[in-house]
Amino acid sequence: MKGKVVALLGILNLCWLLIGGGVFSALEWQNESVQRVSYEDYRSRLLQNYSCLTEEEVTNFITVGEKYYSRVRHSFLGSDTSNWDFGNSIFFSSTVITTIGYGHISPSTYGGQAFLVPYALIGIPLCGLMLNGIGENIGGYVTKKKEQYKKTAGVLVMLILFLLFLVFMVLIPSAIFLALEGWSYHISIYYSFVTLTTIGFGDYVPGQNAAQRMVYRLAILCWFMIGLSWMAVILNQVSTFL
């Protein structure tokens, strides 16, 4: 795939992310605000009216709390920042088209859920084409080097590719997560692996600190794309060698 085609696909993916960010933000932000107000209103009334809660009341409070917590748990619990502002909607869109799908937030309105289907059907193949194009260009260069130095050197090239991936896409980003997120280093490595293999459990999600969310999450988006492309190159080289 030619470099110009890959660049065009990159621009199309960026535009698609911006479209997704705008639409999801427009569809979900207001609904999240309503849920936040409902939760806070219920919690305030409960705490004001009962100085000593019974077991039934505690159970009821937890049930209602979990209902709203499951949808907007990172919004009104410890933060005033919305999960569905423009920047975070772009971040959500990136987890859709890369199929990482953390699951820490998801559309809860009819419009958001309906829009997700065509958005993913177009965005996932578009992102896949871009990553494949990047992988082909890098892989083509690696293949030329392997042909120059025969089979033994080919193994060495694959090893170097893997080590570079390990250092620049896993170990260094994990150190950054350690510093910014407060996670332990082994959890940061675990998160990096789960993300770059697109497993995406959603048990750890970066950028929940309101002060750093926008720029930080955009940087993570770039890390997604580079890391997934690099992973594709490694898998392609391994399969070709085998």
UniProtKB/TrEMBL annotation:
Alphabetically ordered keywords of this record: Ion channel, Ion transport, Membrane, Potassium, Potassium channel, Potassium transport, Signal, Transmembrane, Transmembrane helix, Transport
Keyword Transferase on entry: no
Signal peptide: 1-26
Keyword Kinase set for record: no
Domain of life of the native organism: Eukaryota
Record's subcellular location: Membrane
Coiled-coil regions listed: none
Topological type in the membrane: Multi-pass membrane protein
Limits of the Potassium channel domain: 76-136, 166-242
Chief location: membrane
Single GO cellular component term: membrane
Similarity comment text for this entry: Belongs to the two pore domain potassium channel (TC 1.A.1.8) family.
Protein's name according to its UniProt entry: Potassium channel domain-containing protein
The organism of origin for this protein: Branchiostoma floridae (Florida lancelet)
Lineage of the species this protein comes from: Eukaryota, Metazoa, Chordata, Cephalochordata, Leptocardii
